[in-house]
Design brief:
Blueprint: H1 17-31, E1 48-53, H2 59-70, E2 74-79, H3 91-100, E3 105-110, H4 115-122, E4 126-132, H5 138-152, E5 159-163, H6 170-181, E6 185-189, E7 205-207, H7 210-214, E8 219-222, H8 238-245, E9 260-262, H9 275-278, H10 285-303
Parallel strand pairs: 1-2, 1-3, 3-4, 5-6, 5-8, 6-7, 8-9
Helix pairs in contact: 1-5, 1-10, 2-10, 5-6, 5-10
């Protein structure tokens, strides 16, 4: 039987298939908690979780905060603008000072790839990567995969196309690692300037033609244009990108009748997705948000080191 023995969750690249499934199955039990009149269980009572975010975030930060509260943990939110780091304190010193307050879990988002890994080596507290630069975003991928499995009842053999700014997307990388380990077929589609060299080595099919990515796909995961991460203009105009790679109802004519439309948010409406597609019958975007709380509850619970026999959902 699989047990969770990791102190941290830093990425899906390092997890086994069984570990990923263990998180997904644990999330199944926590999803029911959100449907109760009183949406709280005592699983992490007495534990303290710190949200330590160096980049703007609405969904991920709120989702982790809500997940911690539903597990009865104490939660502290720290942004870099309100921390001692603006006075010159190093990341390691800031983290050690936070740890000295006897916190149990640090949820960290940072613009530099590998920052959560460095932090995890420096502190005894558990560390969860909530996104590090263009590297990984493990809990986003987990909630994406959870949603696909919920809707399609399987992952093995599914065709998943990830479309958009692949080069700057941590969501794409985590999804690729997770989906491939669980037996899905992954296609990535982007303009040549937004397709990272060597991406094929991860076992994905690449195409620069949107029609090829749409045809035969069970899932279309549409990425946000990461304009803030681009050091130079990687596409002539946003309007041209929308025409060539944005998903509208006309382009969906090439899709399967039961295709799923996903997006990690926030959506640039009219660029990656037209409003009728984002809000249409194929969209499971709001389901992703709902499932994100359950997945993050599962991650916080497992990372906390609670014994397997503990009555986590009572």
């Amino acid at each position: 039987m699989v047990e969770w023995n990791r102190k941290d969750l830093l990425g899906l690249e390092e997890l086994s298939k069984d570990e990923i499934l263990f998180i997904l199955n644990t999330a199944e039990s926590f999803r029911e908690v959100s449907t109760r009149p009183i949406k709280k269980v005592p699983a992490l009572r007495g534990k303290t979780v710190v949200n330590f975010f160096f980049e703007p975030s609405t969904r991920t930060r709120a989702s982790f905060e809500l997940a911690a509260k539903r597990l009865s943990a104490d939660i502290i939110n720290i942004s870099v603008n309100s921390s001692a780091m603006v006075k010159g304190e190093t990341l390691k010193d800031t983290a050690r000072n936070i740890e000295a307050m006897k916190v149990d879990i640090i949820v960290m988002r940072h613009s530099s790839p590998g920052a959560p890994h460095m932090l995890a080596r420096s502190v005894k507290s558990s560390v969860i990567n909530a996104g590090d630069g263009s590297h990984e975003h493990p809990t986003q991928a987990l909630l994406d995969i959870f949603t696909i499995r919920e809707k399609k009842k399987k992952l093995e053999g599914l065709n998943v196309s990830i479309i958009g700014d692949i080069a700057h997307s941590r969501v794409a990388r985590s999804n690729i690692w997770g989906l491939k380990k669980l037996g899905a077929n992954v296609t990535v589609c982007a303009p040549s300037t937004l397709m990272p060299p060597g991406i094929e080595k991860l076992g994905v099919r690449t195409t620069y033609k949107l029609k090829e990515a749409i045809e035969g796909a069970d899932v279309l995961n549409i990425l946000r244009m990461q304009i803030e991460r681009q050091s130079e203009n990687m596409f002539p105009t946003i309007r041209e990108y929308a025409i060539e790679y944005g998903i509208d109802s006309e382009k969906l004519k090439y899709a399967k009748k039961d295709v799923l439309i996903m997006h990690p948010g926030p959506i640039n409406r009219g660029i990656e997705l037209t409003p009728d597609v984002a809000d249409g019958p194929y969209s499971v975007i709001l389901d992703q948000v709902t499932n994100g709380v359950a997945v993050r509850m599962a991650v916080l619970y497992l990372i906390s080191g609670r014994p397997e026999s503990d009555e986590s959902t009572d």
